[in-house]
Write a structure and sequence with these properties.
With about 450 residues, the protein is an alpha/beta fold. It folds into 3 domains: about 90 residues, Rossmann fold, CATH 3.40.50.720; about 210 residues, Mur-like, catalytic domain (UDP-N-acetylmuramoyl-L-alanine:D-glutamate ligase); about 130 residues, Protein-Tyrosine Phosphatase, Chain A (Alpha-Beta Complex), CATH 3.90.190. The chain is built from 17 helices and 20 strands. It has a 6-stranded parallel β-sheet, with helices on one face. Strands 15-16-20-17-18-19 form a 6-stranded mixed β-sheet, sandwiched between helices. Helix 10 links the parallel strand 10 and strand 11. Helix 6 crosses helix 11. The relative contact order is 0.09. It is found in: Cytoplasm.
Amino acid sequence: MKVVVLGAGESGVGTALLAKRKGFKVFVSDFGEIKEKYKNVLRDYKIDWEEKQHTEAKILAGDLVVKSPGIPDKVPIVKKIREKGIRMISEIEFAYSFNKELSVAITGSNGKTTTTMLVYHLLKQGGLNVGLAGNIGDSYAKQVAEDPEKCYVLELSSFQLDGIENYRPHIAIITNISPDHLDRYDYKYENYIEAKFRITKNQTEEDYLIYDDDDDEIRKWLSKNKIRAQKVPFSLTHKVEQGAYIEDQNIIVKMNNETTVLPINEIAIEGKHNVKNAMAATTVAQLKRIRKQTIRESLSGFQGAEHRLEKVLKIGNVQYINDSKATNVNATFFALESMKTPTVWIVGGVDKGNDYNELMPLVREKVKGIICLGIDNRKIIDAYANVVDVLVETQSMEEAVKIAQRLTESGDTVLLSPACASYDLFENYEERGKQFKRAVQNL
């Protein structure tokens, strides 16, 4: 069988390695330039590849196309593959058929990286043979090629879920749903919501769907659609019969006639959203029969994801926090909500159709100054010019951090939480976060 892989990033090259190892004929095609480290891998494994073009004859001669999640459906070569009726799937679907253990999968608009890392941490500390993959770390396909026996904890974006057919996680988590990536879904919110719920479409009565029962969109969808998986809600506002809730500053998790009680003040990561992430992860740990003592110790020792409310340094009694991973308004809402001192907020980048009014009450209450870091800051300026005393524009991270230092006094916080994508000034949100940390360390 001929397998064609579109896109030669982490996902595509991992897929190519797995396909090669399984004896398929493999061709990798990338319309952009392939990074040198990936070219070296393709050469080492003697995999046929091309860059800066898509050779139609070679691609359309494939029996199966595995498309990288970053490639939209409207790309001409993708349309031609569909017209020809060639089966096209995602890396997740391809690797799933070779993975002997059912995975734990996490999706959501926000919180999925932290929850994924937390689930992995709890299961690993509990002694299980687990791997970490999906939207995080090494590709799922590459890891399955090396160890098909592991139970993988997968962070899955809506793009990765779009390309599944039979993929079935034993435990699925939906952390929350808020508008994001609507440009990929014909600007229809309902299409994006449907994509998220694909995570449960192949689950059976033996499987579990863990979800935020405080989230209106999730509740609405579940009230109108039947699923086969066992529903396991978590909530900050009300008790649930099976799942997780709050009582007397404790997280209570009830599953299969077992109850776990965890004091909120023992969780290392702060903020209401992280209490929810801990609820979801603890529920998985309980389903996987991890000891209660291990769960407690693991939650108190977990440091969280890089670029997600990451405490960088305290300088002159001012705390600098890197939340570069906050690429939408909803994520920044959680960040601002968790601020306990007057805050200088660094915001901006590539706007995804943001409604900044959602943040207005928090900005009024917590923010003393705003630094707009982006090429086009008009929407942010229009939203907040009359709300804060100081609003400054810059296109340099180094300058943004220096301005922030001048605006703060002892006891304040400087928060990088952009609410936007990073592509106007940076390669990605990681690069943006690293530049922030470097600039803070150079103060």
